[in-house]
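fyi for ur records
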Amino acid sequence: MKIEVDVEQFARDIKAGKSIGGADGALGSLIKQLTETALAAEIDSHLAQDLSNNRKNGYASKTMKSDHGEFKLEVPRDRNGNFEPEIVKKNQTSMTSEIEDKMLSLYAHGNSYDQIREFIEDFYGVGFSKGAITAVTDKIIPMLEEWKIRPLEAVYPFVFLDAIHYKVREDGRYISKAFYTVLGVGIDGKKEILGLYLNQSEGAKFWLQVLTDLNNRGVEDILIACVDGLKGFPEAINSVFPQAEVQLCIVHQIRNSLRYVGSSHQKQFAHELKAVYQAFTVEEAELELDKLEEKWGKKYPIVFTSWRNKWENLTVYLVLPLWYKFHADIRKVIYTTNIIESVHRQFRSLTKTKGAFPNDSSLLKLLFIGIQKAQKKWTMPIRNWSLTISQLSIEFKGRLDDALKL
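which gave:
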């Protein structure tokens, strides 16, 4: 249904010197027209579906507030009193941002600007250009900038760092950029995205800038940092947080290893590798790796060279004395970056309709609003957190005392 409004009156108001926006702007009267026309269509539809002898029964007047001032709205009534308007609820007195909120909600679900425009036009009968929708979504940017510099907690038991890549237009061409995600698990066991960063490539040098930013925003200590196998990453972390234990992601290591294993042997090799990373002590893990190397070492020497070179950071979760007491769920959280990869899956779901982005801002604001949506669901601590934090307080003696108020 298309809403008909007196656009000519709107034009006359502009020609007469009225501003478009503001408390007494021309948009105020236009909003009133749009709303009352929509309400008239709503009651007609309601009465058409009512099998009783129900009919219109005048109007109720109420004062509405909008971004462009107050106006008197005439709301139609029916004789039976069962008409419930959708566009303006019975107790609603403000229309400041209803359509904008709807646009942002659609945007947060990964809808394209064309899809948003079609929905708003179908539902509200009002057409918006791509530029107008962009202006609405750009209101996210100040929120994003404020969020990026917000203070953080002094201590995070776990921090997960990983990157995802997107195509972004720059200097007239599309290039791949690395989007850096930092996810922390706080003292309360709840997940939180600590920061979003964008750079032309993923490297330890830029990660150093990311870690320095976390430090500048109040992070003084990280107990365990979980990362992929990027060269120089552990050194970058320890240069800013010297006491942090750096655990390399076992899943990344397995994937990299299988790239050098013949396709006919991959399934068997992956199965036998479980004995290494599912061991309960580092000594047991070393013994299982020795057995595996004795069987496969001559055929795939590069795989075992990689495991030996990274062994110290691959086995952090085994070296610490209390790790073997951890519940299996917590051990898996520690030795993989699955927790952050699940966030990246949500990002991909949001951006799947976008082949590329016209600029950095368009990418950042979409992912930021996606994060806000995701974090609303992160209301509970990760599983077995009470046991985990008590063990961490013993293992990392004194480093959690202030945060736990011990």
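The first strand starts at residue 56 and ends at 66. thats all i got for now
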